[in-house]
Write a structure and sequence with these properties.
The protein has about 160 residues and is of the alpha/beta class. The chain has helices at about 15-30, 40-50, 80-85, 105-115, 125-145, 150, and strands at about 10-15, 35-40, 65-70, 95-100, 120. Strands 2-1-3-4-5 form a 5-stranded parallel sheet, with helices on both faces. Strand 1 (about 10-15), helix 1 and strand 2 (about 35-40) form a beta-alpha-beta unit. InterPro entries: CheY-like_superfamily, Sig_transdc_resp-reg_receiver, TCS_response_regulator. Pfam families: Response_reg (PF00072).
């Protein structure tokens, strides 16, 4: 990966253990140097982002450079969590990719209205999931320019790409 100095944390919020395991394997298979953290519901997602409960230590809960968000989760669903994240000035710049089994037009429109950056229907096969993870990684961590606080730039990194200046 060109220009990448640090590992970017991906935070996945999904209550389906099989999907989480497959995503972890797909990420490894795609050879992206990203760290994957997983939370199982919207409340745990917000605890992670606000460093509450078991996530008070920032080393245990580094700021994510990308959130993969399932819509249908217990306690607080993805729609509620998305609304809360995008309403917070400190969190709203973190890109959120909705990764869900829902094919409902209403969900697609609603999540974009709430500020989602992308909406992806979960692939059915492992091979397809690997391709999706590779594409997500390439797009969000090689092609797109993200604000430094999103990629964890603070002083060790000026840009997430090589610049020609």
């Amino acid at each position: 990966m060109k220009g990448r100095q640090t590992t970017v944390t991906i935070l996945m919020a999904d209550d389906d253990e099989d999907d989480c395991l497959l995503a972890r394997e797909a990420l490894a298979e795609s050879r992206l140097s990203n760290e994957l953290h997983i939370v199982s519901d919207g409340e745990e997602l917000m605890d992670y982002l606000y460093h509450r409960g078991q996530y008070t230590n920032p080393k245990v809960a580094p700021r994510p450079g990308l959130i993969l968000l399932d819509l249908n989760m217990p306690k607080k669903d993805g729609r509620e969590a998305l609304r809360e994240i995008k309403a917070d000035a400190n969190l709203r710049k973190i890109p959120i990719v909705v990764l869900t089994t829902s094919r409902a037009e209403e969900d697609i429109y609603r999540t974009y209205d709430l500020g989602a950056n992308s909406f992806i229907i979960k692939p059915v096969t492992f091979g397809s999931l690997v391709e999706v993870m590779k594409t997500i990684g390439k797009y969000w961590f090689e092609i797109v320019e993200l604000p430094l606080e999103v990629v964890g730039g603070r002083n060790e990194q000026q840009s997430n790409q090589s610049s020609s200046s």
